[in-house]
Design a protein that fits this description.
- By secondary structure, the chain is an alpha/beta fold.
- The chain has 2 domains: 3-130, Rossmann fold (3-Layer(aba) Sandwich); 139-196, Arc Repressor Mutant, subunit A, CATH 1.10.10.
- Helix content is 56%, strand content 12%.
- The protein has helices at 11-23, 34-40, 60-69, 85-93, 106-138, 142-152, 157-164, 168-182, 187-196; strands at 3-7, 28-31, 47-52, 76-80, 98-101.
- It has a 5-stranded parallel β-sheet with strand order 2-1-3-4-5, with helices on both faces.
- Strand 4, helix 4 and strand 5 (98-101) form a beta-alpha-beta unit.
- The longest helix is centred in the middle third of the chain and has 33 residues, at 106-138.
- The chain is elongated.
């Protein structure tokens, strides 16, 4: 289940929102300040955040910036009783999925939150695939990374062998080990998965 974090220093409004979400079976956790939320935020589960703009100590924009700096996949929905076009543009340009003005239409907010939940699950699954493939690539030896990099550049085995000063048969052995360690059907599918997940190719000697 995808959790919804509510970060708003207005106790009555956050309680009302939690009740609204609960009425359709959406589990939420409420926070009144950014520090408490950031300490409780669990990146190991899919979630989204309903975030107020104006709060003491650290504003909603400050929270958004911190999440962006740490590469958080958390979809953010901003809410504000004092919103304007400049605020909404800033929020959306920095990656927010929506910006709603208080008082918001309950059904519209539910629609936005449920859309953010779907996005959260997609991002979570993508991040899990990235982490898995990244871990498998990290298990390659320096030589295997060199072979992979040159194969990606389109070099045939004989040219890879000449470039690295090894035999073509040894190149075949390295390619087989790369497939075995990464679980890839072929180097072509491995590269395709890396590009699809936004992972760069390992560089020789890295």
């Amino acid at each position: 289940m995808c959790l919804v974090y509510i970060l708003d220093d207005d106790e009555a409004l956050s309680e009302s929102l939690a009740w609204l979400l609960g009425s359709v079976g959406i589990r939420s956790e409420r926070f009144r300040d950014a520090r408490t939320f950031l300490a409780a935020y669990d990146r190991g589960r899919p979630a989204c955040l309903v975030l107020d703009v104006r709060m003491p100590e650290l504003s909603g924009f400050g929270v958004q910036q911190l999440l962006n700096e740490t590469g958080s996949p958390l979809p953010v929905v901003f809410v504000s009783a004092h919103g304007d076009i400049r605020m909404s543009v800033r929020a959306l340009q920095n990656g927010a999925v929506d910006f709603l003005e208080k008082p918001y239409d309950p059904q519209h907010l539910l629609d936005v939150v449920q859309s953010a939940q779907r996005l959260a699950r997609e991002r979570f699954e993508r991040a899990a695939r990235q982490d898995g493939l990244r871990a498998r690539l990290a298990g390659l030896s320096v030589r295997e990374r060199e072979v992979l990099g040159l194969a990606v550049d389109g070099l045939p085995n004989k040219r890879i062998a000449v470039r690295l000063g090894i035999s073509a048969k040894t190149v075949d052995v390295h390619r087989a080990r790369i497939r075995e360690k990464t679980g890839a059907e072929s180097l072509t599918t491995l590269v395709r998965d890396m590009l699809r997940l936004g992972l760069r190719l390992p560089e020789a000697g890295e």
